[in-house]
Amino acid sequence: MDDIGLPSGRTSPEASISTTFIHHGIAHTLPFEADATIANLSSRIESDFSIPSAHQKFMITPKVGILKPPFSNSSLALSTLQSKKIVLLAPTANELSSVSRPAPRPQPNSTVKSATPARNRDWRKVQDEATYTFHTIIPLPYLPNPSRSQKYLERLRDDPGIKAAMVKHKFSVGVLTEMNPAEHTTHESKTLGLNRNRGEVIELRLRTDAYDGYRDYKIIRDTLCHELAHNVWGEHDRNFWDLTKSIEKE
Q1: What is the pTM of this model?
Q2: Chain centre to alpha carbon of residue 184
Q3: Peptide bond into 70 cis (omega under 30)
């Protein structure tokens, strides 16, 4: 029996793939050709969602890390990321337009009070705390009650001791997120935290194993101190433990 071919110009269903990414807690699925790359995904997001590539960052887990245009490996195939979780770290088009939109000018007849300079404001401290911080916070939207995880992570970010340690050691962390307990539990061990690429992403095990509650704040904060020390030292040697203890005291 002769093979039955497809009409000219058509491709078989196997010649296309679907890639899903999460942006601001919402999952978006886009179709691509089978040989599409991470650069194609970036271009598609720019055209379909009006988010310029210059404002895009992709957090891909497990293991891959954070990628941003222009990619060091622009030929990375989307087909190799089908089992990965892809989170787009980027402002929305509305947020970008509101930033670029000029502020309205006051009417000539309106009364505008002159600004009163703030007293006793340490602007150097304000600038340092804005620089040395966790720049993006991401709860896992597919786990129960992500809003509570968001508040937990924000509490850690705004903890006075953590803020002081971040500034003192000049730590700047791209993403602070929670860890899915199911992905990091074996019969022998439970991972409490991970630091990827020395501060690109820090993951913390906020939840109990049964997902019915959250772990003690002090334990999680100590885990965060441990992971921050990995920004400097990779191995668990004396240098690492000395820095960990110093951060915990601060």
Answers
A1: 0.55
A2: 19
A3: yes
Helices (H) and strands (E) in the chain, counts: 7, 9
Residues 6+ apart with CB under 8 A from 173: 133, 134, 135, 166, 199, 200, 201, 202, 228, 231
How many angstroms separate the Cα of 22 from the Cα of each of 3, 19, 94, 196, 228? 41, 10, 17, 20, 26
Q: Which of 33, 3, 67 is nearest to 200 (CA)?
A: 67
Please check whether residue 25 is in contact with residue 11, taking contact to mean a CB–CB distance below 8 angstroms: no
- The candidate with the shortest Cα–Cα distance to 134, out of 150, 158, 152, is 158
- Name the residue with tokens 């509490």: 155
Query: What is the rounded CA–CA span in Å between residue 203 and residue 180?
Result: 9
Helix boundaries (H) for the chain? 38-49, 93-100, 123-131, 146-158, 160-169, 217-229, 238-249
Write out pLDDT tens, residues 69-123: 999 999 999 999 999 999 888 777 776 665 445 545 555 555 555 555 555 567 7
CA distance 85 to 91: 19
Cβ neighbours of residue 204 under 8 Å, at least 6 residues apart?
153, 156, 176, 177, 178, 179, 192, 193, 220, 223, 224, 227
Residues 156, 162 contacting (CB under 8 angstroms): yes
